[in-house]
Amino acid sequence: MMPSPASTLPGIDALWPLCLDIAARRRGPAAPPPAEAGGPIAWSEARGFELQGLWGDEAIELFELLKPLLDRPRPGATWTLGQLGQSLDGCVATHGGDSNFVNGPEMLVHLHRLRALCDAVIVGAGTAAIDDPQLTTRRVEGPNPVRVVIDPDLRLPATLRVLSDRQAPTLLACDARRADAAASRIGPDQVLGVTALMRPDGSTDLRALQTALGQLGLHLLFVEGGGVTVSRFIAEGCMDRLHLSIAPVLIGSGRLGLQLPRQAAMRDCPRPATRIYRMGADVLWDLDLRAAAG
Questions:
Q1: Could you give the residue range(s) of every CATH 3.40.430.10 domain in the chain?
Q2: 226 and 127 in contact (C-beta within 8 Å)?
Q3: What is the CATH number assigned to the segment(s) 76-293?
């Protein structure tokens, strides 16, 4: 049987190296042109990156999903993407904290792709303590991001994999007043002491963290979890986009995902611009939070 014309078009395997090249160029000190005219991907100031020629449907869909990340400018302020995987009833884990795995394998691959394209991946202390994640790009080709763990109170043990395996650059983000104590436990090269990270009321100043990471050249940030940390980034206006994946599972009285401030009326509730993608059995909602704020 002859293959159909659609099956001969370039697919995700051809697209992914091009996406990695765009990310590498963005990180480069010389900031070369991001794409050459006549190539498979072109760049314009007005429209950002665009696929050229004929591509398979799966490649086109993946490119459209990743395009907001690929279009980020090299200089300037940080840009932050969040990801949260939850059940149909809005939980990210069982009551006891088991979250392995809420989403299916296709969503896990997507998660690792986001890590590879971003400069840094961020998790809160709660997720680090419960999941003991590696935060590497094991499921895809591409570089590991800088791993950032927010631990203002230094309550995490130094034995966690992310703090001890040395598989990728790692920063434990704490208030600058606790930096020396953190360095004595895990080494000064793995400590980011952020001035005034802890507010007088005990909350974390996430904008101060973003600024500190930007000063290190980490401009494209990926907040991977957990639900509390992602919610805080959104509530403080520190997140530009959110990938919210819904799995066909009912957890019941589990740990809630998004927990945002209450609104008195529906007219006051944000309605982000959205796009929907299928990831195996899961449904991914791509939410433009800046459009909602506008």
A1: 76-293
A2: yes
A3: 3.40.430.10
